[in-house]
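[audit] Reproducing an earlier prediction to check determinism. Same input, same settings, fresh worker. If the tokens differ from the archived copy the diff job will pick it up downstream; this log only records the rerun itself.
[audit] input (314 residues):
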Amino acid sequence: MAPMATSRRLPRVLRLVGLALLVSVAAPTVSTLTYGQAAAVISKFDSASVRRNTVAEVEREATDRIAAGVARPPGRARTLPGGVVLGQAMTLRELIRDAYGYRNRASSDVIDGPAWVDTDRYDFQARTSLELPQTGVAGLPPDAERLLQALLADRFKLRIRKETRDRPIFELVLAKPDGALGPNLRKSPGQCRSFYQAVPVVASRDNPPRPACPFQLANGVFATLNLTMEELTRFLPAFPSINTTVVDKTGLQGGYDLQVVYQLADLAANRTPQMMERPLFNDALEPQLGLKLRPAQGPVEMLIVESAERPVDN
């Protein structure tokens, strides 16, 4: 499917995404504690189990041999009802990224540590008396991040420091001199909450929470609603073809509805004639959104793994 043909159906595609998510996305959880109150009384999980998953390690090693160089989705932790936080077959580096809000950051933003932080895989399940909001695309809710940091310090004896370094980055800029936007980028009416906007923990009749915006990232389509350019730049490093810090230099204010249709070319199964007609993701930004990535140099806050120890299973 050619991307420009798809762009003329932008409203219909996003409506379909919204319908799908209305079925799959749960309503926001309401708690009697605000995040600030919870931070004052709860400093660690009530209980936690951490076990090494050697089966997943063998499976991943075999997969990497068969399809070397193919980007794999990283392990993700998630919240469940009842104050549960769960992760399966995750490396310590993946756990660190989730615990410190680096889920969608460039892989090079979390560095150092012993070699096993990228190879050993762990299953963990932890529970707190705090009812945690649902995990979103942007990552764990703040309280879950904080509690997971405490768990990693306790069980993995993890020591982390933050450091700002001057590194190559991308600046997201308008592609055309007149500032014209592409056909797949439109000002949003703002009727839903982007995946980077926190869910209000305490809602009222006068201030009900807005529904979560639809989100699609599958089959070579990235589509969502009411996303600011600053939020877009925070998510773009998650794409393997970018994998670099991106800074907003567009000057665009407020939320936008957007869709990018791009080529998935990393596996033979994706190499259909229709797929191969699409541009690669970075190349699709200009004709579809009217935006482009400009190489630059700038400060990047990084996480440095100073030390860690393998935990004892429990």
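[audit] rerun output stored. Observation attached for the diff report: The first helix runs from residue 3 to 7.
[audit] end
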